[in-house]
From TrEMBL:
It holds the Pfam family YlmH_RBD. This is RNA-binding protein. It comes from Candidatus Lachnoclostridium stercoravium. Keywords: RNA-binding. One of its GO terms (molecular function) is RNA binding. InterPro entries: Nucleotide-bd_a/b_plait_sf, RqcP2_RBD, S4_RNA-bd, S4_RNA-bd_sf. The keyword Phosphoprotein does not apply. Residues 176-233 form the RNA-binding S4 domain.
Amino acid sequence: MEKEEYLLKKRLLELAELCFQRDVPAHSDFLNLNEQTIFYSIIRELPPVPYILAGGFELAERKIVCFLPSYMDESSFEPPVSCIRFTPLNARFAEDLTHRDYLGSVMNLGIDRCKTGDILLNDNETYLFCLEDMAPYIAGEMTRVRHTSVKTEICRPGEISYTPRFEEIEGSVASVRLDSVLALAFRCSRSKILPYIQGERVFINGKMAVSNSASLKEGDIVSVRGLGRFRYTGVRSETKKGRMFISVQKYC
């Protein structure tokens, strides 16, 4: 076991034990998809406490694990995740900023990546999700991204207006096994998809895919490192020869 994996497992188990023994809420830093898979691998070792994964919005890729005390449930618990809205002070002279530009500005503040979640670019606004206790510092200090001066506003994740852009892709497959659907979504052969699965770069609903023959269910979110992600929206019809006509929403 790699040292980083061992330390992450140890930390997650400690947080769960803290919640169980003291009956207080506890949460991790933001976990990437690989780290979320590590968390799922130790679920049977956890004490009997409820937990949720939260990233600030439905399609979040980076999430924190929250362990809930006996007096809270998912409906009453508010994850300690804040959202910072960035807008250019002068849109006319603003640069065409990228995800990397915003992430670089955060890192330049000396903030570890694990303290921040997803970054969403949405027309003239950008949303950065972060741990609640980091939001005032980031919002106060991050006044420029590259050469563009920006205005910041801390808001609750539920207050943002963000509609993901996606491309609707349809086609026929012999079955809804993972490699077939991936080949359709990313317009390549199944043989070219296989190394991504074997290289542990494919995740279904935040969990690492371990088999190219795994079946997808309607609504599953599939992420592929280096290619992108999509929502599997299901079988639309079946041909006389038994092939299935399916559709996916590939996020832009």
